[in-house]
């Protein structure tokens, strides 16, 4: 219900601006670099406050894990650049810890700033920034890996061995461009354009640019109006098909891009000439 409402609101906003804004669909855990960069810092906490979430957990008899200032919470600090400095709440257990990262452990009125042995100075600084964001003015207790107190281990359910395996992100593969069409039976068909360039973006076509880490559906100005409105649904059919054949994640970030309004994170995959680009009016 919440997802459908968000989609309707985003579509209404886009339509009010004549479809010029890039419309994106982003799933939790699959945030793209340009999305993360909008939040400084980006902190993802457990649970939610929407009526849809509360109804879901009530119907399924699940516990409400929504973060509060009083709860025991473990926050992971990993990337530090503007495009990957997402921090997120993880299960408050010792097996969540990683030597390559920093963690904030909130337990009552205390926040521990835990530094893994392979973590960086930038991670230490970001951890302090996030702590100030969550609990302004709180005094941090520093806990370097190997020097933890019994109170620290008690809060995470007891001492465990700590991994040093780095968390890997989705690999960006060579991009592929496809034209899309439907056969007489209504089945989606795609045809790859090899060695593609800007000139392959024809105004009467809908095309898919697939980088494996992200998917773009590009819509020409002269595309049928009904197809324009169904662009996300058409792209989802491609994602479903590519998921079974190529292992594409069903939660891959998806962007709807209209001719003449291409963002830099789309044009970077082309030798782009802005003089050729059509400007919407």
TrEMBL record:
<protein>
    <submittedName>
        <fullName>Villin-3-like</fullName>
    </submittedName>
</protein>
<dbReference type="InterPro" id="IPR007123">
    <property type="entry name" value="Gelsolin-like_dom"/>
</dbReference>
<dbReference type="InterPro" id="IPR029006">
    <property type="entry name" value="ADF-H/Gelsolin-like_dom_sf"/>
</dbReference>
<feature type="domain" description="Gelsolin-like">
    <location>
        <begin position="89"/>
        <end position="135"/>
    </location>
</feature>
<dbReference type="Pfam" id="PF00626">
    <property type="entry name" value="Gelsolin"/>
</dbReference>
<dbReference type="GO" id="GO:0051014">
    <property type="term" value="P:actin filament severing"/>
</dbReference>
<dbReference type="GO" id="GO:0051015">
    <property type="term" value="F:actin filament binding"/>
</dbReference>
<keyword id="KW-0677">Repeat</keyword>
<feature type="domain" description="Gelsolin-like">
    <location>
        <begin position="191"/>
        <end position="266"/>
    </location>
</feature>
<dbReference type="InterPro" id="IPR007122">
    <property type="entry name" value="Villin/Gelsolin"/>
</dbReference>
């Amino acid at each position: 219900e919440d997802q459908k409402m968000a989609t309707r609101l985003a579509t209404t906003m886009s339509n009010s601006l004549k479809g010029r804004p890039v419309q994106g669909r982003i799933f939790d855990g699959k945030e793209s670099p340009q999305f993360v960069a909008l939040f400084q810092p980006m902190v993802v906490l457990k649970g939610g406050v929407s009526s849809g979430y509360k109804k879901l957990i009530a119907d399924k008899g699940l516990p409400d894990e929504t973060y509060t200032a009083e709860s025991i919470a473990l926050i992971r600090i990993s990337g530090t650049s503007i495009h990957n400095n997402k921090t997120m709440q993880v299960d408050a257990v010792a097996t969540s810890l990683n030597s390559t990262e920093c963690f904030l452990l909130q337990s009552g009125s205390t926040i521990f700033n835990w530094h893994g042995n392979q973590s960086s100075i930038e991670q230490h600084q970001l951890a302090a920034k996030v702590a100030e964001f969550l609990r302004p003015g709180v005094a941090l207790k520093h806990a370097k890996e190997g020097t933890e107190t019994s109170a620290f281990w008690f809060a995470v359910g007891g001492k465990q061995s700590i991994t040093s395996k780095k968390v890997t992100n989705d690999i960006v593969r060579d991009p592929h461009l496809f034209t899309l069409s439907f056969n007489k039976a209504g089945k989606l068909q795609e045809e790859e354009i090899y060695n593609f360039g800007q000139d392959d973006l024809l105004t009467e076509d809908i095309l898919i640019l697939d980088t494996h880490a992200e998917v773009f559906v590009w819509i020409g100005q002269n595309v049928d109006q009904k197809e324009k409105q169904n662009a996300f649904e058409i792209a989802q059919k491609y994602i479903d098909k590519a998921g079974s054949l190529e292992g594409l994640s069903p939660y891959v970030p998806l962007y709807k891009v209209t001719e003449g309004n291409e963002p830099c994170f789309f044009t970077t995959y082309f030798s782009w000439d802005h003089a050729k680009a059509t400007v919407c009016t």
